[in-house]
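step: validate -> pass
step: tokenize input -> pass
step: predict -> running
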Amino acid sequence: MIGLFCVGAIFLLLYYILFLNHNYFVKRGVPHHKAVPILGNAAPYVLQKRHISEVLQELCDAFPKHGFFGYFDFWCPVYMVKDVELVKKICIKDFNHFVNHRTQFSAEHDPLFANSLFSMNDSRWRNMRSVLSPAFTGTWNDDDLAAQCTVFLFAGFETVATLTSFMAHELAINSTVQAKLRAEVDATGAKLNGRRPTYEIIQEMTYLDMVVTETLRKWPPVPFLDRRCTKPYLLEDLDGSSVQLQPGDSIWIPTTAIMRNPKYFPQPEKFDPERFSVENRGTIDPNAFISFGVGPRNCIGSRFALMETKTTFFYLLSRFTIESGPKTQHPLEIKTSSITMQAKNGFWVRFRKRS
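step: predict -> pass
step: emit ->
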């Protein structure tokens, strides 16, 4: 009898887990794809069949007439917001309703990440952001200082390494772009006449900025941004329908899907730095470029990452040309087991010393 009771209890528990939130979006009238039990809509990524950015882009393309749709991250419901105007409302205009990230760390078990700027919430985040924005100055305690340094080190290294790798690959297979960039590097080097480049000099290199920006558009560091609703909020769709969000509800913003949407960037699969020229920038919605986030909670280290990458390529192209080789993979296959953008078989290019 006890055994039968245990079997029944286990069956009920499994049923509850399998169909937890099964009708969540149906009840709210939100468009969505049917989810796989437990794995949700991320099943192809969890099973390492496709990269998460590809999964999200396919889902976004399936709802062309909607600004958002329902998505199951395993059994957790998420509102996937893909319309740029809605993104602007959530991250800028109505930011006070979405101050925090969804990810939470335990201060007891993981004090470094729990005390980092990324994980901080509400007024504590605002205070730390205001302190860190100018530089590492202020009177915050040792634990907070260690937390910020640790996250800046790991996040900064990963972002710059990824950006540098993808940019080297794109320059190797786009020789015309590389030649134009190399000409700008040489002209800047001649102007410096042996002196080291300053921040101002690097900032004046407009084509270098165009190439870096286009690399970030095509290969953003993270596949999505996240926000957590902190105040009741009415999320309105493009067709006039709406859904009432409550504190605790999750928002995802698919970076790759937005920046590879031909509505915002024509011929999105083409590597074209000219789309960010002075003449063409006016045709781009600035809120569609979200590689480093958007609004007050954007990446605090973006300027440093950009300067580090630009300086690296200034010195690199001063001395070498970057060429494709027998191991260079094009088009690139993305590593399906990684949440960030990584090449499946690594990055392979040749550096030929310039005469």
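step: describe -> Strands lie at 68-73, 76-81, 224-228, 233-236, 242-245, 250-254, 320-323, 350-353.
step: cleanup -> pass
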